[in-house]
């Protein structure tokens, strides 16, 4: 696919190196939702066809919401396989966000209907090691097309989830902030307390909140 120069698009360099080594199915994994005060952390694993490069697929945080949704549909329709892994706020409180992120990634990989031969994973190597050859890439959602695609699918899924919860808890502004700690969100917490969707362990910085509220 021809990529327009004025559209940021993650490259296939990492994927092509793995293909050159003989791997046939290369997957990408990324997560979203490590920083919010409320809601789950969500990971996505995706396997794209060899050589496929979709214009505009890049770090999901750098793409406007409408375009992300459009790209997510293109990725889903083109992918060989894709799957999500979720870890909710209570488990995040129990084991910490880093370990929850690894679990979300592992669940996404397990949920794939097809197992990749190799993986490209966003971030630095931690305590989780997948059962297939893997390469961890710092800022991978800007450097690897597969990781960028995974970041888009994960973010669209999580954003949709938080917007659904906005119907029940509109006072927190989940529809727009997606659980992140905006000034209005923090003000709502101070004024009315917390919801079941909030991460108690993240609210210690605000002060005065426990899991008994």
Under CATH at level 1, the class of the largest domain stands as: Alpha Beta
Got a strand count?
5
Principal-axes geometry comes out as globular
What structural class results from the helix and strand content?
A: alpha/beta
- Spans of at least 5 consecutive residues whose pLDDT stays below 50 are none
What is the rounded Rg? 18 Å
Please provide the ordered H/E string of secondary-structure elements.
HEEHEHHEEHHHH
Helix amount, in percent? 25-40%
Give the CATH H-level superfamily of the largest domain: Ribonuclease H-like superfamily/Ribonuclease H
Mean pLDDT across all residues, rounded? 93
Strand content: 5-15%
Strand-helix topology:
Blueprint: H1 13-20, E1 26-32, E2 41-47, H2 65-78, E3 81-87, H3 89-95, H4 97-111, E4 118-122, E5 134-137, H5 140-143, H6 145-166, H7 174-177, H8 183-192
Parallel strand pairs: 1-4, 4-5
Antiparallel strand pairs: 1-2, 2-3
Helix pairs in contact: 2-6, 3-4
Task: Describe the model.
There is one protein chain. The chain is 39% helix and 14% strand. It has helices spanning 13-20, 65-78, 89-95, 97-111, 140-143, 145-166, 174-177, 183-192; strands at residues 26-32, 41-47, 81-87, 118-122, 134-137. A 5-stranded mixed β-sheet has the order 3-2-1-4-5. The chain is α/β, with parallel strands linked by helices and 213 residues long. A hairpin with an 8-residue loop joins strand 1 and strand 2. It folds into 2 domains: 13-163, 2-Layer Sandwich (Nucleotidyltransferase, domain 5); 170-205, no CATH class. The protein has 8 helices and 5 strands, in the order αββαβααββαααα.
């Amino acid at each position: 696919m021809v990529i327009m120069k004025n559209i940021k698009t993650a490259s296939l360099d990492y994927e092509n190196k793995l293909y050159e080594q003989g791997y046939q199915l290369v997957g990408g994994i990324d997560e979203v939702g490590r920083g919010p005060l409320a809601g789950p952390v969500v990971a996505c694993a995706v396997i794209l066809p060899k050589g496929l490069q979709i214009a505009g697929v890049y770090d999901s945080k750098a793409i406007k919401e409408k375009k992300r949704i459009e790209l997510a549909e293109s990725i889903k329709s083109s992918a060989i396989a894709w799957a999500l892994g979720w870890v909710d706020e209570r488990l995040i409180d129990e084991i910490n966000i880093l370990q929850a992120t690894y679990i979300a990634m592992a669940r996404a990989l397990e949920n794939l209907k097809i197992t990749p031969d190799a993986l490209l994973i966003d971030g630095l190597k931690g305590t989780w090691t997948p059962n297939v050859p893997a390469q961890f890439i710092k800022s991978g959602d800007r450097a690897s097309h597969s990781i960028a695609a995974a970041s888009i699918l994960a973010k669209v899924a999580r954003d949709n989830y938080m917007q659904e919860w906005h119907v029940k808890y509109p006072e927190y502004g989940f529809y727009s902030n997606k659980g992140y700690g905006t000034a209005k969100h923090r003000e709502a917490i101070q004024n009315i307390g917390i919801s079941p969707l909030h991460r108690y362990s993240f609210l210690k910085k605000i002060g005065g909140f426990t899991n008994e509220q």
